[in-house]
Design brief:
332 residues, mainly alpha, Arc Repressor Mutant, subunit A, two-stranded antiparallel ribbon, 32% helix, 6% strand, rod-shaped
């Protein structure tokens, strides 16, 4: 007889057999069906391969995982800035920005500022389907996401990366690379410390009223653009720069317009640094000096003696005082 295969599950007894008693399900089988049951259908068109290291990430929030899946499903060149994502999903811009920072921290997203030929600064976003790999390898392909038809998809939902298999066609079982779900995902290098904010102009006189007006102006920028939400430290750093503008006879409306016009369409990573640059680069000159106009001296008429009551009064020429001029018509 052949060797018995212990991995084959036991088959239920036929109804026509002599034993008609109902089969009692073991406790192990009960626990196996108490969880989720998958009803899977193999996709042949319009699908994206997502690794379990992302779908089951132990540190990412549910919103961050869903946002990463959505970004990886987009075609190359699609817009993934905060404004576009906030219009697409019901979550607010603040939660979406926090989720993008989560993905950036764990290596699923890279954002860098680049200058385009027309002089504008844009944010270049790269989505990584397997962080920690080399930037030029096949496994770390920037999201040219697989929305095109796939004639023969892999049956394994979490296959091994292709380039590693090409290096050694017949690897030993012990020499196989670690599964993506085993290694903890994360960036290979530590993030650089945050750069300090650029210096801003300082007013000649830091009066409390002037700094209070500058602080209120900065706090109100969030109503014009959600990206202009500033922290307490950033507001305290930028307030003297706004006060320097107000000190130069610039109205608050003009300052607000200069800071918020022509904003980058893809959003800003550090709005405080952006505002500090504008406050310094576009600082207007001091208002021109205007000498105060001296008021014309008051003309005082000489004293005259009234012809009626002989009282002294001031008038350009001799005659009657005001009381006498009023009394004469009444007597008449």
């Amino acid at each position: 007889m052949d060797t018995k295969n212990l991995s084959v599950p036991p088959h239920p007894e036929a109804r026509g057999s002599g034993n008609n008693r109902p089969h009692r399900r073991s406790s192990s089988n009960v626990s196996s069906v108490s969880g989720v049951v998958h009803d899977n259908t193999r996709h042949t068109t319009r699908f994206t391969v997502i690794g379990n290291h992302l779908a089951q990430h132990p540190e990412l929030s549910l919103l961050a995982i869903g946002l990463a899946v959505h970004i990886q499903s987009l075609p190359a060149g699609a817009s993934v800035d905060i404004k576009t994502l906030a219009k697409r999903f019901p979550e607010g811009a603040g939660r979406i920005a926090a989720s993008l920072r989560e993905l950036e921290t764990h290596g699923y997203l890279r954002r860098c500022r680049e200058r385009v030929p027309d002089g504008r600064m844009v944010t270049r976003t790269t989505s990584c389907n397997q962080p920690g790999r080399h930037a030029g390898s096949h496994a770390d392909r920037a999201t040219v996401l697989r929305t095109e038809p796939q004639p023969q998809p892999q049956p394994d939902p979490d296959p091994e990366p292709g380039p590693l298999a090409d290096q050694d066609p017949t690897p030993e079982p012990s020499a196989r690379p670690a599964h993506p779900t085993v290694a903890a995902p994360g960036p290979s290098e530590k993030r650089a410390p945050r750069k300090p904010l650029p210096a801003v102009p300082q007013p000649a006189y830091k009066g409390p009223g002037l700094l209070q007006a500058a602080t209120e102006l900065l706090a109100g920028l969030r109503r014009l653009d959600p990206d202009m939400l500033l922290s307490v430290c950033d507001t305290a750093h930028l307030a003297p720069g706004v006060a320097a503008w107000l000190e130069r006879d610039v109205s608050p409306t003009a300052v607000r317009h200069a800071l918020t016009r022509d904003l980058p369409p893809e959003g800003m990573r550090r709005p405080a640094a952006f505002l500090a640059h504008r406050l310094t680069a576009q600082l207007p000159p001091p208002a021109p000096y205007r000498a105060p106009v001296a008021p014309a001296p008051a003309v005082r008429s000489p004293l005259q003696t009234c012809d009626g009551c002989e009282r002294a009064f001031r008038a350009p020429g001799p005659g009657r005082c005001r009381d006498c001029r009023v009394a004469v018509p009444m007597a008449a």
